[in-house]
Structures are given as structure tokens and as C-alpha cells.
Amino acid sequence: MNTHRLNITIPYDLARELDRQPNKSRFIAEAVEEKLAALKAKLVQAELAIAYSRSTEEDRDVTQDWDSTIADGL
To answer: Is 6 a domain residue?
Structure first.
């Protein structure tokens, strides 16, 4: 795995908690991966909600179009 060195600033209390971890770099990398995955999941969920909403509107429009043709054969 390629790595990249960063110089970051975090709150002192958080740094003290991090000092208890045996491998700080791995811990931070995993935490960032988890956070990014959660953010991506939220984005996908929001996109799916929008798509579902549009799909529902399209279904309603198609149903209205067909409802108007049902009486044509009577």
C-alpha cells in the first residue's frame, strides 16, 4: 500500500486517547475509511430516495394516462 505523510491538528483530549493505540497510523486510516464509507452510504441513500420519488411521480403519471384510455373502449 502506498502511503502519504500528513501533518494534522486534533484536539488535545483526542490526541491523548489516540496515544493509547498501538499503531496510530493504522487506527487513523481505518477511522477515516469508516467515516468516508458512511458518508458515501448517506449520499447513495439520498440519491436513491430522489430516484424513488421521481419513479413514484412517473408511475402516477403513467397510471393517469392509462386511466383515461380505459373508458375509450366502453
So the answer is: no
Tell me the backbone φ, ψ of residue 10, rounded to 5 degrees. -130, 160
In 3-state terms, what secondary structure has residue 8? coil
CA distances from 9 to 12, 19, 62 (A): 9, 14, 55
pTM over the 0.70 mark: no
Q: Please give the C-alpha separations between residue 65 and each of 19, 53, 62, in angstroms, as whole numbers.
A: 65, 19, 5
CB-side neighbour CA atoms (13 Å) of 18: 15
Q: Does residue 68 lie within any of the structural domains? A: yes
What are the angstrom distances between the C-alpha of 46 and each of 43, 49, 51, 58? 5, 5, 9, 19
Tens of pLDDT, residues 36-63:
999 999 999 999 988 888 787 777 777 7
| Amino acid at position 45, single letter | Q
